[in-house]
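In response to reviewer comment 3 from the previous cycle, which asked for concrete evidence that the modeling workflow produces usable outputs, we include below a single protein chain processed end to end. The sequence was submitted unchanged, and the resulting C-alpha cells are shown without manual editing.
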Amino acid sequence: MAAFFAQAGLAVKGNTTVYNREVTYKNVAYGELAAQKMDVYLPANRGASTPAIVLIHGGAWMNGDKSSFNDVVAEIRKRLPGYAVFNLNHRLATYQGENVWPSQIEDINKAIGFIKEKSGEYLFNPAAIVMMGASSGAHLALLQAYKYNEDNSVKAVVDLFGPTDLGYIFTNAPYPPVRLMLNLFLGGTPENNADAYRGASPIFHISKQSPPTIIFHGGADNTVPITQSED
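The workflow returned the following C-alpha cells.
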C-alpha cells in the first residue's frame, strides 16, 4: 500500500518545521451531535507536508463504531509511521427512520472540513488526504472522493469491499437483509426513491478527475457481491 500511496503523490517528505512527539486525541467533536466524533493520531516528526489517512468504519450504515478500526489504526501507524490518522464516527440510520440519507455523507463532509481547518494546529498537509473505509465505510469514502472532492484534496482511496451501485445491490442482493438496510438507510426503494439510489452510488460519479483507488474484495463475499468491485 505504501507504493500505491507514493504513486498517488502521497510519499512522506522531509519537513522543515516539525513536532517531534506523537499525539493522540480521542473522541474529538467535529460537530454538535453525539455521533460526530473522531479519534486523531498525529505522528512524531510531522510537518506541513505530512499526509493524512481518514478511516470510516463499516456496519451497513446502521451499526458499527470507529473502535472497530483500532487494530487497523495500529497497523497503519506501524507500517506508515509518517501519516496522520483520523478515525471517524458518523450518524447511523435506525429502524425508527432516523438519520436517513444523506445524514452519513453530510457527517463525512463535515469531518473532512473540520480536519482541514485543523491542519495548521495539528500540522499536516490538508491537500494530501487518503480516504479509507470498509463495507459501508468504503462506500462513504468512495463517494466523498468521487462526488465531493471539489478541491482535489483527496488524493487516493482504499476501498475494502465497498458497495458501489446501491440499486443493483437492492435488486440482486444475495443476503436478503441488505434490502431492508438499504430501504431504511435511503428512505425507500429504487422504485420510489431512484434519485437517492443513483446519487448515493459511487459508480455514477467516477470521472477522469477521480483519485486513484485500490480495491480489496473477497470473491466469496455474500453481503457485498464482488461484482461491485469489478468493471
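Strands lie at 23-29, 37-42, 52-56, 84-88, 129-134, 154-160, 213-216. We consider this sufficient to address the reviewer's concern, and the full set will be provided in the supplementary archive.
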